[in-house]
Specification:
The complex is a heterodimer of chains A (287) and B (281). With 287 residues, chain A is an alpha/beta fold. In chain A, 41% of the residues lie in helices and 21% in strands. Among the domains of chain A are: 1-81 and 198-243, Rossmann fold; 247-287, no CATH class. In chain A, a hairpin with a 7-residue loop joins β1 and β2 (20-30). Chain B has 281 residues and is of the alpha/beta class. In chain B, 39% of the residues lie in helices and 20% in strands. In chain B, the strands form two sheets. A six-stranded mixed sheet of chain B has the order 6-7-8-3-9-10, sandwiched between helices. In chain B, strands 2-1-4-5 form a four-stranded antiparallel sheet, with helices on one face. Chain B is globular, with a radius of gyration of 20 Å. Classes of the chains: A alpha/beta (287), B alpha/beta (281). At the A-B interface, α7, α11 and α12 of A face α6, α10 and α11 of B.
Chain lengths: 287, 281
Amino acid sequence: MPIEVSHLTHCYSEGSALRTVALDDVSFRIEDGEFVGIIGHTGSGKSTLVQHLNGLLKPTSGQVFIDGEDLNGEHVNRRALRQRIGLVFQYPEYQLFEETVAKDIAFGPKNQGLSADDIKERVRYAMDCVHLDYDKYAERSPFELSGGQMRRVAIAGVLAMRPSVLILDEPTAGLDPRGRDKILTMLEELHGREHVTILMVSHSMDDMARLATRLVVMSEGKIVAEGTPRDIFSREDMMTSIGLDVPDAARLCACLRAKGYDLPADLFRPEELKEQLLRLWKEGSAC
Amino acid sequence: MRSDSRVQLNNVSYSYEEQASPALSGVSAVIQPGEFVAVLGHNGSGKSTLAKLLNALYIPTEGNVVVCGYNTREEKLVWEIRRRAGMIFQNPDNQIVATVVKEDVAFGLENLGVPTEEMIPRIESALSAVRMSACADKAPHMLSGGQKQRVAIAGILAMEPSVIIADEATAMLDPSGRKEVLETIRSLNRQKGITVVWITHFMEEAALADRVLVVTDGVIRLSGTPAEVFDRVDEMREMHLDVPHMTALAGELREAGMPLRPGILTVEELAEEVENLCPLK
């Protein structure tokens, strides 16, 4: 179910003195099975963009096509399209409201009108996806859980709708390293095993380096670069010029290359760098 | 102000009523005047409990917390303590009370009964110290997260504190907001000698501290300079904590036989060490 964004422009407060162009003629495509990372400074338009992908915001101009259908077209079954695109907001745990974890996760499927058995099956599936043991947590209050667990319950609520595409806005923000790792591992599995297409907005270049198959870089409402993490992270100057960092390993690589060391230009993973540095050292100590 | 602006914890334990095991048990530590101490620990380790004990939001179940010579047990000293030990919290939206920036900064002073003519210069100097003077008349909701946190810091500064305690003050900010808040606090620490207790999950922030305390299961497990603490990569990971990427990489290179010096924290340090070990021909 590919998503295509075509010449999308969005203005907030159109027609008033506060008019701001949040998205300016943005076009891109997400293919099935991709793990796309959207990076950019705060205010670059990332969150505005993702809210268009399941119809929460309407374009000022331009189109969003889901599986070839114009999401904002006149005769489109918008509800059906939206159900296939799961959107996880920032700090989604603030939206939990039910008495038990199971009830909270069941909220979506219940509204879809599924049978009690199907709902239970969906809840089990979703809890399994986010690594929460059904027997242990289903009947607990979500508000007794840790922040990281609450966030996973909120994500399970979206997964229970069995979306083909999962969109997450800053899914690891504010979590401790353990909570963050659990979310990342879970996303890795959803992408690899369940073949869910994932679009993730994040400020963490390390998370992106680990997970994304493609990166979209935004600045001031426009897409300024697109490519594999390897491609994007080797362009430190471009990234710095729009106020973004590259992973430490990419910075070390650039720093050593600038000093004259013979290293490939596009290293960004610590394990790649380890190999190259050991090579340099062995070559050095050989002569 | 008392000359003794140390923060002392003497064998401090704290238990929440509803929980069987204590959140902190038998913690002792001394934070020296002007020190910048980072506190690391995963969620539930007890580090936020520790923070709240430092300005009498919590009173220890056992032991004593002494801030600037005042024991937090003495109820009538609570306001004295809070004036000297100000606290910044995680969520920028939860600690702004007024509708205009400068009035928010004035809030603490009003509660202390500071006369208006003294208040004005204090507010101005506090806002200028966090580089927010230009926003003095703005509405807080128009500010970025980093700016809001700096207003919160200004509110504390106006009370002329000896100690600032920050409980994950950057957790909800983007990278540039994080940088601006951390730089603000660092310069207050260096220029005004304010003691800082900086609770964080970001090891790159902890790497800038004078000293790092690692709290886990309610006790202080490690204490030392960032280099000393982070070099214990395995121990840190076992506690589900990160170490800076370059420290981890240096550790692996050392294991593979490369004789790197200990205590590497940054890209620049590792690059320099590579230059030493693999000189260019």
